[in-house]
Write a sequence for this structure.
């Protein structure tokens, strides 16, 4: 019942991000859009609630964090734009570098949870993403973005913050690149899109290593770490243990490239359906 609201949000947030407006104007428009969408989702939950715990987990793990992460992201961008020193590149660079340190501190403090999510674990989902366990894992966000007890679990806000910080890193990196165009440690990136990898990390690593083995990127003149970084940025995810995951794939018994073969089967099935139309 949430598909239409999320689809509309996706279209509208992409229009905001790709517009010619200033970063501050985009942030203000984005904040209003996110609040409207979250309010709409909240009313749906209050009216319909969930059929079972699986649907509740899916909502708080995969649906609500989409607009919630953008609300946090746009709020951080707005705060940064208003707080950024107005004169001189060096004061601006020092300010932005402090923001990078704050982001790194956040990921350091939440590394266990981030690792749980990035490895696509599920064993703690009933505790993290259902409202029955809200009191067992109290989490107080540094900014009260949008949190109501009846519309929150113990970790959905934290998961949204993780995704928001990935987006915020791109924003900070882009501003530093403009201030330090000759700094090889920085690089230009496109504006963040609402593209989130919703499959398993292992499946994505299969795709990455297949492209690397085929030499289909940069005529094969590229490191695997560079391809992984590009996929992380494009899909707003993190692949910290890429080589270990690849080693686990190689150690599989039987079919070692099951996801790639699954893609082939699904594409062929779609082609057959299209031919029958």
């Amino acid at each position: 019942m949430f598909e239409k609201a999320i689809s509309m949000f996706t279209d509208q947030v992409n229009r905001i991000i790709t517009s010619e407006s200033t970063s501050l104007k985009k942030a203000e428009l984005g904040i209003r859009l996110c609040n409207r969408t979250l309010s709409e989702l909240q009313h749906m939950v209050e009216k319909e609630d969930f059929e079972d715990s699986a649907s509740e987990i899916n909502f708080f793990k995969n649906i609500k964090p989409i607009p919630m992460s953008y609300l946090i992201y746009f709020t951080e961008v707005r705060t940064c734009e208003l707080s950024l020193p107005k004169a001189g590149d060096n004061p601006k660079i020092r300010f932005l570098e402090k923001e990078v340190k704050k982001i790194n501190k956040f990921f350091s403090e939440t590394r266990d949870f981030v690792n749980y999510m990035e490895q696509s674990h599920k064993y703690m989902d009933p505790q993290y993403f259902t409202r029955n366990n809200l009191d067992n894992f109290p989490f107080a966000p540094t900014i009260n973005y949008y949190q109501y007890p009846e519309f929150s679990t113990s970790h959905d806000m934290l998961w949204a913050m993780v995704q928001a910080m990935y987006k915020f890193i791109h924003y900070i990196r882009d501003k530093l690149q403009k201030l330090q165009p000759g700094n090889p440690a920085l690089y230009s990136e496109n504006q963040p899109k609402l593209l989130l990898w919703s499959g398993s990390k292992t499946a994505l690593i299969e795709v990455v290593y297949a492209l690397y083995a085929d030499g289909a990127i940069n005529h094969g003149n590229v490191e695997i770490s560079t391809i992984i970084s590009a996929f992380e940025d494009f899909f707003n995810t993190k692949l910290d243990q890429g080589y270990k995951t690849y080693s686990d794939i190689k150690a599989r018994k039987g079919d070692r490239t099951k996801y790639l073969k699954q893609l082939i089967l699904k594409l062929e099935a779609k082609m057959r359906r299209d031919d029958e139309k």
The mean pLDDT is 84. The first helix runs from residue 3 to 17. The chain has twelve helices and no strands. The radius of gyration is 20 Å.
